[in-house]
């Protein structure tokens, strides 16, 4: 019998609870929605309702309880009001765009809001617009959020980040849809936000940057966004028992602000039952499992936007030519309200220009893409009409098999910029990069790329096409849900009984024994060097014999493949320096106990490992130097490249500079990781294990280095982690951990409780089935009516 079909005697009407004996609290608005929140250990809510509106209501209320300030900040951002309350300066909320400050953030989002694109999409029926059940969830979510705010009032908010703040307000469904849209375009318009602040030429303009410069900045923009992940799907043949499956979901997301995950279980008895986590404010499970299938996502390699270079009419820089015919650019004046230094609020305006392809853009993160008297560049975002992802995750939340997952991805075509890795009860493992991808075939790129685009497409998959020819616009497939994107049948996917995985490289080696080829170059490369993290994942998966316990242990072993490849050579190099003095940028530096520490190091980033901090700082300083003597061999992708290039002067200097860094921070060369890597929560120092992805550590932690103290915060890394096993019993064998805990509110008991668990290497045993929930010693019930 399925877990959600078991008797829910105490929840028959999802309204009244009389038998739990755990203390019942009532909250909410009469008639606005009906749900029951059953909190288990660490503040994880199991939300039960009779219908989808009630489910959304419970989610909205519970999410606001934990994170009302961060959610209010999100809605302030997408409504383009940051400058009104905070002034024009500040960081512009990087969770939703690359805007340099509040003013540019507001102008960017007001431009979107003025266009009406979100309202038009939300008004459409499925498949382009939300399906009816999604609309019900969204309506309930908005009412639940507002019910919490009405109950507490601004003055009653406990979080000091927004207590009493006049920018905290009730929200509308429009706010919600704007938020999801902002997430969808994060990898497109969100990346090029600053580039849109350009104007027609009025004088001399610089030459465009090179393909190498632009490709490097695109790589940096997409990889430096704080988003990454591991997903490992173990099929029946690679489990210890030879049946069932095991899934590791390990997204590496920011620990602060609007890209935090929040965990829940959502249940409509007999109809809907799913557990996992979603980004703040998304009332669905985006990474999680049902009773029979589990899935996770990893950030994928396709560049989801592209550029068009348009020739301009002589003497008129706002008129461009297509097929020899003149077309006038459209201009739009965007106005936002901006708080002045004296406290007054005044309007500020900006003019944006657009072509048939999309907005005109200028320099991209320091690389010149000038709007000259002869040509201009326009950007097209493949997710510019994507509200479909809401339907995607709603359908994933009902999956019973990996086949269901493929069908949901293919039918809705709403995943904006991630791969999907999944398992099911039958023992199948799935990799699928069924997402929104610009329909730029290799043939189109060859025929239509500009000289600059020939280089960027080859290097990073960024298409820059000739906008003077209508024949050079993005193509389409019969199976695509809209023109301009690839159909699911053209995108890489693979199922096996062995394993499938991804660690942010392309689809090529989702399984080392069954390489995937034949997909368009814009989707990703083939036959190229894999990152140390991907190689670590593949080498681990190849061993087989997995259980849920061994998967959890493997992740928290914090093993570094890059250390396996180079640490022994580095220890020998250390011991070879004349007089025990290593070269550095500031002169010679004594190696002290560094050589012995490296020689004895176990190559892990566990808290008590010695040598790990030194190696971390060394590897961080290597940059793009020629680090290996044995080059990459596509016939041996798991073992090459290797062997540290100790003869390279830059490698030797990087080691000396790492020694200087540690000593400046008051850390010995043989310091333990716990001595120099921690976060502080409410005055408590919590050591953090794990290491950066470039170290080949699966349990990624990207720390913030303070030159005087060492690693003092986590920028991004392991966030919501799940290990889900299907092994024959009706209830999945699942464990989870939300590394930064459920609440961003320092006054909450769930502000850092799971962070301490993480520090100790412990997990939360998930309570998915009814009996497990009812037997929680921490069970607390809140009835919303």
UniProtKB/TrEMBL annotation:
Highest taxon in the source lineage: Bacteria
GO biological process, one term: antibiotic biosynthetic process
Protein's recorded name: Acyl-homoserine-lactone acylase
Pfam annotation, one family: Penicil_amidase
Keywords attached to this entry: Hydrolase, Signal, Zymogen
Organism of this sequence: Amycolatopsis pretoriensis
The organism's taxonomic lineage, starting at the top: Bacteria, Bacillati, Actinomycetota, Actinomycetes, Pseudonocardiales
Signal peptide coordinates: 1-27
Family statement: Belongs to the peptidase S45 family.
UniProt GO MF annotations: hydrolase activity, acting on carbon-nitrogen (but not peptide) bonds, in linear amides
């Amino acid at each position: 019998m399925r877990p959600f079909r078991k008797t829910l005697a105490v929840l028959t009407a999802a309204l009244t609870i009389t038998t739990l004996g755990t203390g019942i609290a009532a909250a909410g608005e009469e008639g606005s929605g009906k749900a029951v929140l059953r909190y288990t250990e660490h503040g994880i809510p199991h939300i039960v309702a009779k219908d989808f509106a009630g489910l959304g209501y419970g989610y909205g209320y519970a999410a606001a309880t934990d994170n009302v300030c961060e959610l209010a900040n999100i809605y302030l951002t997408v409504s383009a009001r940051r400058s009104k309350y905070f002034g024009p300066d500040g960081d512009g909320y990087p969770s939703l765009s690359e805007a340099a400050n509040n003013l540019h953030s507001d102008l960017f989002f007001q431009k979107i809001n003025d266009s009406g694109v979100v309202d038009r999409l939300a008004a459409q029926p499925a498949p382009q617009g939300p399906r009816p059940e999604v609309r019900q969830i969204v309506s309930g979510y908005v009412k639940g959020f507002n019910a919490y705010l009405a109950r507490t009032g601004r003055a009653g908010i406990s979080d000091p980040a927004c207590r009493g703040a006049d920018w905290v307000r009730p929200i509308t469904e429009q706010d919600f849809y704007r938020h999801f849209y902002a997430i969808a375009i994060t990898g497109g318009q969100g990346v090029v936000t600053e580039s849109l602040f350009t104007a027609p030429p009025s004088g001399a303009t610089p030459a465009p940057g090179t393909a190498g410069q632009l490709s490097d900045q695109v790589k940096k923009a997409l990889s430096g966004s704080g988003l990454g992940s591991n997903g490992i799907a173990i099929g029946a043949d690679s489990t210890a028992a030879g049946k069932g499956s095991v899934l590791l979901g390990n997204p590496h997301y920011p620990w602060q602000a609007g890209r935090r995950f929040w965990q829940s279980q959502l249940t409509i008895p007999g109809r809907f039952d799913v557990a996992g986590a979603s980004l703040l404010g998304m009332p669905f499970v985006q990474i999680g499992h049902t009773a029979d299938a589990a899935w996770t996502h990893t950030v994928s390699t396709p560049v989801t936007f592209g550029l068009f270079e348009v020739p301009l009419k002589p003497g008129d820089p706002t008129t461009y030519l297509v097929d020899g015919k003149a077309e006038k650019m459209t201009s739009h004046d965007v106005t936002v309200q901006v708080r002045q230094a004296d406290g007054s609020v005044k309007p500020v305006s900006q003019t944006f220009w657009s072509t048939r392809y999309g907005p005109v853009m200028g320099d991209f993160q320091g690389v010149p893409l000038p709007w000259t008297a002869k040509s201009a560049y326009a950007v097209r975002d493949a997710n510019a009409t994507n509200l479909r992802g809401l339907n995607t995750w709603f359908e994933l939340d009902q999956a019973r098999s990996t086949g269901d997952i493929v069908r949901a991805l293919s039918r809705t075509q709403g995943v904006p910029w991630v791969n999907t890795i999944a398992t099911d009860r039958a023992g199948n493992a799935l990799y699928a990069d069924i997402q929104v991808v610009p329909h730029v075939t290799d043939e189109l790129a060859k025929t239509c790329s500009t000289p600059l685009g020939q280089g960027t497409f080859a290097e990073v998959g960024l298409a820059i096409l000739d906008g003077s020819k209508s024949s050079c616009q993005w193509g389409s497939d019969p199976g695509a849900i809209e023109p301009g994107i690839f159909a699911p049948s053209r995108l890489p996917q693979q199922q096996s009984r062995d394993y499938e995985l991804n660690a942010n490289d392309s689809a090529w080696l989702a399984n080392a024994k069954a390489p995937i080829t034949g997909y368009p170059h814009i989707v990703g490369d083939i036959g190229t060097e894999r990152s140390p993290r991907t190689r670590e994942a593949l080498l681990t998966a190849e061993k087989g014999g997995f259980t849920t316990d061994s998967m959890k242990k493997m992740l928290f072993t914090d093993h570094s493949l890059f250390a396996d490849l180079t640490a022994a050579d580095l220890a020998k190099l250390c011991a070879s320096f004349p007089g025990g003095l290593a070269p550095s940028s500031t002169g010679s530096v004594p190696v002290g106990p560094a050589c012995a520490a490296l020689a004895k190091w176990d190559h892990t980033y566990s808290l008590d490992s010695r040598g790990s901090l030194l190696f971390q700082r060394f590897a961080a300083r290597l940059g793009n130097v020629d680090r290996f003597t044995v080059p990459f061999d596509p016939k041996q992708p798991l073992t090459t490249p290797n062997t540290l290039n100790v003869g390279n002067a830059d490698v030797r200097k990087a080691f000396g500079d790492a020694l200087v860094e540690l000593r400046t921070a008051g850390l010995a060369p043989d310091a333990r990781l716990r001595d120099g890597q921690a976060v502080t929560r409410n005055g408590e120092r919590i050591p953090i294990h794990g290491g950066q992805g470039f170290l080949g550590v699966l349990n990624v932690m990207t720390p913030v280095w303070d030159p005087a103290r060492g690693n003092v915060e986590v920028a991004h890394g392991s966030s919501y982690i799940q290990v889900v096993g299907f092994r024959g019993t009706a209830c999945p064998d699942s464990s989870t951990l939300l590394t930064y805990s459920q609440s961003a509110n320092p006054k909450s008991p769930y502000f850092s409780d799971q962070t301490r668990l993480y520090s100790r290497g412990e997990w939360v045993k998930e309570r998915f089935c009814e009996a497990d929930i009812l037997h929680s010693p921490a069970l607390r019930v809140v009835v919303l009516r």
